[in-house]
Amino acid sequence: MNASENSSTRIRLHRIKVVSQVAKVMVGIVLCFNLGFSLLFARWSSPQFLTPHGVLMLAYHVVTLIWFWQWFQLFRQYERGRIFAADTIRHIKILGALWVIGWMVLTMAHFVNVPAPAPAITANAAGQLPNGSQAVMVSHHTYRFGFFNFDFGTGIDLGGLLAGTVIVLIAWIMDEGRKIKEEQELTV
Questions:
Q1: I need a labelling partner for 138 at 20 to 30 A (CA). Which of 49, 77, 95, 172 fits?
Q2: How far is 180 from 184, CA to CA, in rounded Å?
Q3: pTM of the entire structure?
Q4: d(CA 76, CA 34)
Q5: 141 has a pLDDT exceeding 50
Q6: 37-41, 71-75, 152-156 — which one is most confidently predicted on average?
Q7: Do residues 74 and 95 make contact, with C-beta atoms less than 8 angstroms apart?
């Protein structure tokens, strides 16, 4: 390796280090915000939490927090210049697996019955509303958008499963490439 290639490599590694430090700070901020939001606004002691849906949502929050921690660890590896190291690839595999686990937990939560709130106004026996009350129709719209949304009318979005599987597959290919390179370096 000549001096210009060495200088070019150092410049690239320095750029990776700086970008990784910035990304690590951003992920740390999002992790703290997510943790704080969960602790401040969640009703962990409410009876609604003790339902299967509440437990699944708690599990999803735990998976999300671990996911952000793995992102933090991945950028820490990049910051150290360990781009294709086994530990770095392991973090990518864990990120993909957590994505799939999060998808499974949300899919299960989708099928668990959430108790409906009690109606505020009920009609009397004659079919009329109490004095001064008017019937109001409330509609709820859900908009889903994104690159990996694949719902074929079943109510299950398979995009999360696909995205997590692709991440794990890419990490596996990177790991195999790393092993091939190590074998080639040992061969004379």
A1: 49
A2: 6
A3: 0.72
A4: 20
A5: no
A6: 71-75
A7: yes
